[in-house]
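Q: Structure tokens for this one, please.
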Amino acid sequence: MFKRILIANRGEIALRIIRACKELGVETVCVYSTADRDAPYLRLADHTVCIGAPPASESYINMSRIISAAEVTDSDAIHPGYGFLAENSEFAAMCRDCQIAFVGPSPEAMGKLGDKISCKKLARAAKMPTFPGSEDAIEDEEEAVQVAQKIGFPVIVKAAAGGGGRGMRIAHNIATLRTGLKSARQEAESAFGNGAVYIEKFLESARHIEVQVLADSHGNAVHLYERDCSTQRRHQKLIEEAPAPHVDPKKRDEVCKAAARLVRNAEYVGAATVEMLLDDKQNFYLLEVNTRVQVEHPVTEMITGVDIVKTQIMVAAGEPLPFKQRNIAVNGHAIECRINAEDPANNFAPSPGPIDRFDLPGGPGVRVDTHAVAGYRVPPNYDSMIGKLIVHGDTRRIAIRRMEQALREFHVGPIRTTIPLQIELMRDGSFQHGGIDIHYLERLLKG
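A: Here is the predicted structure, written as tokens:
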């Protein structure tokens, strides 16, 4: 096991990693920007290092400063959390070159699964269902038109690298395909330094389903079943739940096993999430693989009892997975609401600033992952999420009721948060019956 891990992240995920390290008897080093110098979680770390100014380019994604901090503190591993450098293969390679363990996959495995074109080829070999579309990156407009006409409109142009909705364009005809191809390439080049794009069939109505997988360096890969992340706005998830409601058990079993095969075949070590779309005929199609721990990992922890972050660290240290597939079972239902410092009544405008009141909910089956406390100031420099509220119940119906009550007990002020909207969603008939898709929230907001 590692002696000391540097946490190359901030906020609630940094605190989550600190807690996992404490259970493993591993010392922690937290790096921070000047915007986070007063963050309460820093007091729980064994060591802290300021690495720069508030802009992420000068701190949390400045690779040389993070590596220097690891060397100065004699850290033998770096945990990247999610976001920032978590899926940066160059950073993973830099860690290896400096003989510092990266708590995540190798640069090679990250490249295989992080590049969507390469991932698609591996998926077919693992018998993971994929969208019809281009086999490789699209070279020119005419090739794009030929592919689109073969698979039929509508189609979607996607960046081969990256995600989060950037480098994506939907086209319903040849004219919008030509303009969308050009703008998607430009956006992908600007966002990811890679302008390669490909084309797939676009589903007008679908659900966003993802399978959590853990793999070790001994050839083992185990799935922890699936989550539903369909309640999202502009490709940003707001509510997640596990297991996904109304999924055919046989199809669920097939796709979960295929996800584990895909990760195993990539010689991957760590936590990975295989993301898919599910159409109204219960057909699954691969979207991408996230080569890191997900924001929504707690819902899976709640239904399986597996500590995903702690297991990440164990397998990164060379230990085998402490369980087999037969040991993993689903218990009840869990829901997670992301508590963001945003104002839903004002087009989700960011709401940074001081928090004077921060009353947490409680009771059976209620968990809150947050770095915020009363007196904390939400900086304007980073993601607006200030915490995650997770509940567990014996059934989905109980979990929804428990979440509504927990949200009503959760008071944050004077900043605005997404809590009022999430209370409304828990009371919405479509959500209660599981009749949602990836456009559900946007339809509700427009209505």
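A few notes: The mean pLDDT is 95. The longest strand covers residues 221-233.
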